[in-house]
Amino acid sequence: MFGTNKTFLLSFVSLIVLSSCEPERSPFDVSPSESMDPKRLEEPYPKIELPEDIDLESPTWKGIDLSPQPPVIPVSANEEKKSFVLQPGFHIDPVLSEPQIREPAAIQFDGNGRMYVLELRTYMQDIDANGELMPTSRISRWEDQDNDGVYETGVVFLDSLVFPRYVVPFGPNTILSMESNEDHVYKYTDTDGDGKADKKELFVSGLGRSGNVEHQTSFLTWTLDNWMYSTYNSKRIRWTPDGVIQEPSGNPWGQWGVTQDNYGKIWFQDGAGGVPQGFQFPIVYGNYSVKGQWKDGFRIPFSLIKLEDFQPGMKETKPDGSLSNVTGAAGNDVFRGDRLPKELVGQYFYGEPVGRIVRQVTTENVEGLTYIQNKYLDKESEFIQSTDPLFRPVDMATAPDGTLYIVDMYRGIIQQGNWTQEGSYLRTKIQQYQMDDVAGNGRIWRVSYDGMPRNTEKPRMYEETSAELVRHLENPNGWWRDTAQKLMVLNQDKSIVPALEEMVKNSDNELARIHALWTLEGLSSLKLELVRSLLKDPSPIIRVQALKASETLYKYGEKSLAEDYRQMTQDADPNVVIQALFSAYILSIDQVEELMASTIESNSAQGVQLVGTQILEKIAEAKEEDANKFEPQQLALYNQGKSIFDSYCSTCHGPKGLGSPAGDGLIAPAFSGSQRIQGHPEYSVKTLLHGLTGDMEGKEYEGVMIAMDMNDDQYIASVISYIRNAFGNEGSFVTPEYVAEIREETKEKEGTYTFEELTGEVPKALILQDNWIVNASSTALQGVGSTKDPSYAFGYKGWKTETSQEPGMWFQVELPDAHNFAEIQFDSRNEFPISYHVSISSDGNNWTKVAEGKGEQGVNNLRWKSEESVRFIKIESTEKGETPWAMRNLILYSR
């Protein structure tokens, strides 16, 4: 299917389609408890036995009720519906439930209104998290074909996944997704229209994170500014016709949930912290501390569940047994629909699954600063409460029909296995109510309101032209506007530019003007004169959006905007002033520190004072960090490379490494986020030494890369080291000695490289496939719910030996096909091999040593030349060490 032979990929052929026959009962009347062991309901109920060393007088345990209790019993969706306590006028109804879906954790709608469901089918299937990383999760896609409000028809779009992190619709029959302990985002496409993905392509690398599944990247989200943001990543990425670029950002402090409001303000949802994060200012400008942004009382949940079953224990329990302080949160949405009361538009919603509540958050802007509060604090209530202990709201979304959807995992355990270990308070409470037996369910709910029926118009954006999509920018439902904008940007059809410009200038709909502005920016068709006219717009909201969009023009060379940023710091609206300061700061305009200081002196608004002061602190911190970021030799290369790039290379490749515009394209490729630049360094070295001409992967560029071999090895190494570590890139440094080796090897090269010729010579990274056989002489267990799997060496999770390293310890890979291995690379951090050698074999019995080296902390590389193509490669330790031998992000290269 994807160049692999995973046996578990066979489940791709499973197609879920509900029967067209009328059932005797609604699917929502079928109760999961009907298939449960009836003995669970019989008394006497199990008695809890605690370890002897538990201190029952400690704050966590003091006052705990340990008496046997009847088990919590799952009920049907229609029965659970009766448990909800809603605000007056609101209603909640199921639209999809088990057995059609299991363990739903997130939803997304595509351009035709089909609902993708992220099903984490291995999450906490027992109290010890066994099998958590088994490849049995999936992404399913559902449709309401008869338009009755229920999603009755579904397919398994992508199966056999290892705890996938998100699903991002990305055009007709295409999604983006990433698995746990991975560093690669892939694009999956259904090319034959059968509803199942059959094509897998690498989209971007560098977004991964390993460790506890609750603490990995989630919710990659395309936002108003045409960038994509996710949790746990201090960077943002962007699709362009020339590839995916990336930029650094602040730390989002989010765990499970990313959403935006009508004006592109991004909200991240913290998990264990239980509160929204990152909502003050755009995260690309960094993190800012605002005292009191969560108003007094915000952290108090009003739960109707009184089981005392939460990780902090009795110290955070109200006298009635309910939760006294938010301890977990998941999923979020700024409601932007048109089929609930208008006062909900722009309100932030998120789930507190430990408290079994959905919270509505109100916001207040005071002189440019945002403060938030529980809408129903005065009533000591929440937007939604439930008396069913299994209600677990983990995501929510504004739907195409204008209402709010809520994803309910409907399960007994919501905390991951690290918090349910033997002897823990939480494990005791889970077992007391036998909640560890309740798994494998899940419901998706629609929230509606009296007298406001859902919108029954079915989106058909994939069948519409770009010209037809423009009208959706005026839709009162933010989902329609967002989706239309994204598709127009992906289409790159510039025939709609006049219509978009007309909308920006003359529409009475301010939100349509904003989306049209950003669509122009995404089409690389935003003109300087239009931006400058919008900087004088009567609406401060439009002025803010114009400032943000203008940053792209500045990055592509319109340096005259620096004066506009200076002038806009004198604006009467503090929000405009703050944005002008942000733009000046992130673009590092000349004398930016002086601008911050003078603005602080002249403008007393709270937000201006806070932002200006903290930006000055960030500038000072950055100077200190830059001085210590690299080793002295690396810093010298970096600084020399920056000087050369700014003086020469930026003319074609752009001052920010984004490429310089030329007509409808670029003079030269962008460097930001480039997999070619961050990949094997031989590509860049050969390009600079001998030049590059012709199209690249089907893309034509106006410029030609001439040979730079008249420059010395230091010059070449410095430029490449700089571009591999600037513009959000993260690559190894290139030494002058390495350049000298490549120069000698290619001294007979005549003429300029073509792209095909060059990529044919450069060592290629072999991506781990499921038909590789990976073995090791010793493998340690890596985390709760894991197995002793040496193939973790190829990911962020990593592999290491069970004991301290000894001579003869080995790590071996057998591939199904022969390759001409040329190099290995791995990251060893603190547990690196003292010394090691690499051997190759055609049969796994007779070995030839091809290279040897000393290990070091950080990235290790070992190169060799061999004319032999083989299937086996082995790395072997040759010295005794005091620590285990560990590797992660292992890469095998072949020619």
TrEMBL record:
Keyword ATP-binding: no
InterPro entries: 6-blade_b-propeller_TolB-like, ARM-like, ARM-type_fold, Cyt_c-like_dom, Cyt_c-like_dom_sf, DUF7133, FA58C, Galactose-bd-like_sf
UniProt KW keywords: Heme, Iron, Metal-binding
GO molecular function, one term: metal ion binding
Residues of the Cytochrome c domain: 636-727
TM region(s), chain numbering: none
Pfam families: Cytochrom_C, DUF7133, F5_F8_type_C
Lineage: superkingdom: Bacteria
F5/8 type C domain ranges (all copies): 754-895
Protein name in the entry: L-sorbosone dehydrogenase
Native source organism of the sequence: Algoriphagus machipongonensis
